[in-house]
Amino acid sequence: MDHEEEGSGLKMKAMDAEQLREQAHIMVDFIADYYKTIETFPVLSQVQPGYLGKLLPDSAPTYPESLQHVLNDVQEKILPGVTHWQSPNYFAYFPANSSIAGFLGEMLSAALNIVGFSWITSPAATELETIVLDWLAKALLLPHHFFSTGQGGGVIQGTASEAVLVVLLAARDKILRTVGRSALPKLVTYGSDQTHSSLQKACQIGGLDPELCRLLKTDSSTNFALSPDVLSEAISNDIANGLIPFFLCANVGTTSSTAVDPLPALAKVTRTNNIWFHVDAAYAGSACICPEYRHFIDGVEEADSFNMNAHKWFLTNFDCSLLWVKERSALIQSLSTNPEFLKNKASEGNMVIDYKDWQIPLGRRFRSLKLWMVLRLYGLEGLQTHIKNHIAMAAYFEELVVQDTRFKVVAPRTFSLVCFRLLPPPNSEDNGNKLNHDLLDLVNSTGSVFITHTALSGEYVLRFVVGAPLTEVRHVKAAWQILQEKATALLESL
Amino acid sequence: MDHEEEGSGLKMKAMDAEQLREQAHIMVDFIADYYKTIETFPVLSQVQPGYLGKLLPDSAPTYPESLQHVLNDVQEKILPGVTHWQSPNYFAYFPANSSIAGFLGEMLSAALNIVGFSWITSPAATELETIVLDWLAKALLLPHHFFSTGQGGGVIQGTASEAVLVVLLAARDKILRTVGRSALPKLVTYGSDQTHSSLQKACQIGGLDPELCRLLKTDSSTNFALSPDVLSEAISNDIANGLIPFFLCANVGTTSSTAVDPLPALAKVTRTNNIWFHVDAAYAGSACICPEYRHFIDGVEEADSFNMNAHKWFLTNFDCSLLWVKERSALIQSLSTNPEFLKNKASEGNMVIDYKDWQIPLGRRFRSLKLWMVLRLYGLEGLQTHIKNHIAMAAYFEELVVQDTRFKVVAPRTFSLVCFRLLPPPNSEDNGNKLNHDLLDLVNSTGSVFITHTALSGEYVLRFVVGAPLTEVRHVKAAWQILQEKATALLESL
Fold first, then answer.
1. Which residues contact B282 (CB under 8 A, 6 or more apart)?
2. What is the mean pLDDT of chain A?
3. Cβ of A28 and B25 within 8 Å?
4. In this predicted model, what pLDDT tens digit does every residue of A13-23 receive, in sequence order?
5. Which of A28, A273, A388, A409 is nearest to B27 (CA)?
6. CATH fold for domain B2-84
7. Interchain pair B103, A110: CB under 8 A
């Protein structure tokens, strides 16, 4: 059959405008049909580990196969193993928005397939990135020093992990230029115990002592926000012990419960102690384009760097993590290289930005294109509506939970995440952790909904995030009904 | 007009199967038309720094705009600022192949838009990646320990920079577990002076002493390959000085001249000294699926890690960098995190791979999909033909250069790169560096062709790489004609 196809004249060229047109139209219909039927798939894939190895051959084919053959395999073999992040019944982790505009942007970027490490390798890629990050900085009312016209500027990273890593490296090298390289083992990093694990990983990568990544305790008394007093005390202790505090990662919207650290009060502490102040608003930053939520980043004018992921809740396909820095030279001093084979007039003349020096990899995709298309095809007003709509649905879900006395909302809902748990029956041996773990498994194994969990003060807690573009109130209602039914069944079985 | 459009009922939804279908078909035609007319654009963008800021507004729009409006802007404002990596007249840097199959894979991956950090977030993403990396390992005749069934396995990184970084970190932490963390400032990294700048950057990132990243001298006597004796001597000196050698990055196909380091002889040195042996075949690795070129990676069976970029010369759209490691536990020990919110049964039970622990970021795209589609839609035979065809065209170009006595080929052509220069006239004050710099500028400013340069033994050298999928012999001929014409004009003007 392979040989037959090869001889049929249908063989696909490496590149050809008309073949591309024909095959890509087929793919568009396949994708549109996927979205049309997306609710028929289990949201969380129900396959067992190793399922795919049993379905695919153990070698690459020698001869070409047809697109139809491959698409059949996608339908029959790949899609069952997909967890459908774009399903309207997806309420897990944080959202990863795909949108029509974002998808179109990805298409165009993949088609041009440029590698924009330096300005000259596609001036439009660099310049559009600078422009849309300035647009966003304006929409978020960020301080002037984060604009490209100041000493700083914005850049698209792949993920928030890379964003925190590059600013940690910039901060590390900046302080080491003052105190000397040999002080590396004395550098201390701070965050709350709610800070994303990427901070620890960044410390690990940067050669910092992992013991000196201080994740300061939070609890429900501050709604899991970092206390400036706790930070201040930790810093004083470290200084007294001859250590060198150099970096704080503050959160606006933590992963577990969307807690918001008090930026202005924390900024006072970092200013006094000459510490790099990074604000991680990976998820919640998107909400701050709405006037009524902008106050959550009040204090950002004191930050050295600020991050939000357009690929989470801003209708921009993964990956697209936006980072602004106050002082771009710190980033560039840490991350620049200048080999002969990349030298060119524009770069040598310091006339342009070369974003390769603002990130870990050398190569980079034309990611600004999709963000630009999202901004233009939806407009800021459309994006605000998208955000507000999700927050309203989360508020509605919260109400539903509150009305059922068997459940409890365990942290304030600030954006579109509700943290809640099923209460253990009186005199139960279980503190509720096993109960909620079991409830999560039961609910997710229906395939009708996907939610995830976290731990807050040692309690196993369920997380329900509204954020998928296709989610409507009816999906929220249906999800709650499943949760209630499974809770009833579980409590009865005890 | 914005308001009008808003009221016209054409407003794009965040997501909707039928709107997606309609708009994506429009985008397909736009993209196919781009490829149809790609030769009408200057290959190297001829815009001046800052050009785009003058064409775009300084704020994001409040209200949605139409796709047609945006596509007009792409045509009129963005495309002039694009350097057309997919043009058949692109002979610069190394290629970054887009192909029909790769593009279709990107479309599908963008449509599913999953974030595959852990197995459970889309089992198919993890398992397909493992499978296709095993397929490729087989096609490249890699040793058993690089297969997922051994102690190692393959993983897709964004770029070769990230590949060398993660293995450097794994090697760093492995040796530090033996000698103690305080030995960090004593660790020494080795490579030749032809090694890609990403090695130095990785050292910088990992907190290693930049002075101890030894880029050992090469010259034309070894065709710019690293001498095992030079390496051995450097290691002995460092050990004698109380330093700790721990990492070698060897090259198969350097960026400047596609030099090939002698892997078997280097492996002897690393084995004796217990040094992590990384092989960077970012560009040339693709050629090694052809039996006649496989010998260039002989010795890879001794390597601890091996890297090739499918996004360079393997018809797989950017980004897709393939990394194999001998001992996956070393990678995982350096890069794993395990926060509560990501815990799940499959991961806790060690039943699955979580690729988040094999890379820098947490999030990751479904990149194996495009590689799988490339392998299936072209077959290994089709991919071999693609490679051989380019190498034959480069050999033809080399012949053309040799036939014109005004030029000189300055390094052996091994794959599809020809390094050459225009010889300065006798009694010229210029050693040829200015002459070739001027020739490069003249040629690139025609817009008809794009080539880049490098330096070899202090000489400014022109690089001509055949690698774009659309390139045919007529494009190579035309490029050479432009080079000859401009050389004639330049020599006459002296």
1. B94, B160, B163, B196, B253, B307, B308, B309, B312, B321
2. 96
3. yes
4. 999 999 999 99
5. A28
6. dopa decarboxylase, N-terminal domain (1.20.1340)
7. yes
